[in-house]
Design a protein that fits this description.
Strands 1, 2, 3, 4, 5, 6, 7 and 8 form an eight-stranded antiparallel beta sheet that branches. The chain has one domain: Protein Transport Mog1p, Chain A. By secondary structure, the protein is of the alpha+beta class.
Amino acid sequence: MAGWKSAFLVLLALSPAVATGQGKSGPRALDACGLATKVELEEALKKKVQSRPVPPGTPTTLGVSTCMWATANGRQTLSVTTYTQEALKRTQTRTLATYYDALKTSNANNAGRPAIVLPGIARHASYFPAAGTLSTVLIYRHDSIVVINLTGWSKDEATAIAKAAGN
């Protein structure tokens, strides 16, 4: 029996980390690391990415999941956070549509300009460039709201990341 357990642990250690990032998920959450795997991100971006640890203080609440990625040199980073309907039940917004609209309004106010619509991604997707190299993409999927915070990515790269996570 010990040989079987050792073989299983070796197989387990070798397989999932190759395709997914390091994430944190609360109960009944949509796995943020599974929305766009390492392979899918690298294919979309035409560059290598690696998972980054999610900071210990990041909450793992009901219906919320977070995953982080970066380029090898660490100059370009992204975090993906998913919010399912379960996460919104006890909030003022209560629905995915209302939450998406509230996030759009908040991001537009912070950016000082309206959203740039990214057509053909999920139900709706919006891009918000911020100061310097920061930007945010919001995606309204049928099963969740996805918030992608980016540092150092162009609008075209942000769109490629959104397509990988939104479809």
